[in-house]
Specification:
Length: 116
């Protein structure tokens, strides 16, 4: 079975396609770093939409999502954006974890797996 990699660097690939499964690396808000959880989540989900399109799929085919937030007090704020974005009836298996992220300007990081 073939493997395709997109946006590949020396440490990681942003998107990996193996057969009919698409794996995204953790996505942070590159355009909204340092901004609110709402803006960061919106930015991340927009980036995820682009990565999924590159791999030939979309959010209606999400299988799982792992969400990292730096403060569980912002869980509802993040969920408000997520709930407006996720495909109704096609919600993935999901976990949300409080964690310290790679840089203090990031409050949210999301990693997803999707089918093609």
């Amino acid at each position: 079975m073939s493997i395709q990699r997109f946006e590949t660097g020396p440490r990681m690939s942003q998107v990996v396609v193996h057969g009919n499964t698409v794996y995204l690396a953790g996505v942070v808000a590159s355009n909204a770093k340092g901004e609110s959880v709402t803006k960061q989540t919106q930015d991340i989900l927009s980036i995820i939409d682009g990565h999924l399109a590159t791999a030939g799929t979309d959010k209606s085919k999400l299988l799982s999502a792992t969400i990292y937030i730096t403060d569980m007090a912002t869980f509802a704020e993040m969920n408000a954006v997520w709930d407006g974005w996720v495909s109704p009836g096609n919600t993935p298996a999901r976990a949300t974890v409080e964690a310290r992220l790679a840089a203090p300007v990031y409050n949210v990081e999301i990693m997803v797996i999707a089918a093609k």
